[in-house]
Amino acid sequence: MEMSNFTENQMTVRDAIGKICDNFPNEYWQEKDRTETDPKELHAALAADGWLGIALPEDFGGAGLGISEATMMLQTITQSGAGMAGAQSIHANVYATQPLAKFGNQEQLSSTIPDIISGKTRVCFGVTEPNTGLDTLRLKTTALKSSDGNSYSVTGQKIWITCAQVAKKMILLARTTPLEEVTKPNEGLSMFCIDLDRNAPGLDMRKIRKMGGNAVDANEVFFDNYQIPANTLIGKEGQGFKIILHGMNAERCLLAGEALGIGYAAIEKAAKYAKERVVFGRPIGQNQSIQHPLAECYMHLEAAKLSTYHAARLYDNSKDDKSITQYAVGVAANAAKYLAAEAAYKACETSVMSHGGMGYAREYDVERYLREIFVPRIAPVSREMIKSFVAEKVLGLPRSY
User: Does the keyword Oxidoreductase apply (predicted)?
Assistant: First the structure.
């Protein structure tokens, strides 16, 4: 990746994270993928140096940096060979905590943020549901307040919850007012920071077997009158959707960076193999049929890189520069996620094909990259939804969903 024009902070992050990741070679990730074992050692190493708090407030032990630096951190992790599994092991600790850091009260912040940064507490994000998918405003999980006002009873189901098996906390979005009783669809949702007490009644988790990223767990989470204290509410009741938007744009930037990292790693692997693999008395990299697709992939990644860090910069600067609207941030973040995921997917596919038969072998890693790169193409929002969003919000075309 061309490194010109990055900030000193971003370069410092890249160097420091790169040194940590050097201790986790490809063989480590191959084994974690094969055995479906959580990469707790990477999580611990990043926590030991304070990196889990990269974008959290300094008052609570965080680094106080921005999503621009966090994006660089996650790109560096995936690019090291860790892939999406490495990034997803800490992903929610970075972006899911953004709404908490902005809207949580002093007691919530002081009791949770330091433990997240130290690695004592891992976090997962509970939004997606099996029957609503991307239609977040119609989610079914309810949080009903008790008559004495001291607790809520949570009932419903969440799906594709990453790291729920190892998390102690969940940032949960649930409906506190029925949809038919609100004036606008985006009202009546509330956000909570809850404990995942596996010994308490009303909580059940089931792992989902999946295609890639096998080192981190993905889950269905079931709530059946699961009791949570009233003081777990983040911000005001009924304002959860507005609060969650603060984390969604951040997540798009982070996923774009993660995709870029895998894409660059795949191209680097392919170029190395093409220089070493000799067929018909010459390295295959001498053939334009190998050269040109790899060169094209690199250029697409570079273009997506510019979009990604532009979006992250807008996100960070919008906190102080009121001329930067959330509309502008949303368009930039969605576009970056789309472009990076598509460029990285093509890079991973091209890398596998450039390796020929060996691209299908696990020892060369590129098949793992290809399996994992589907994640940023699908989540947290599909390619098609991003296109519809841009068509409506930017081009002024009729709403299609």
Answer: yes
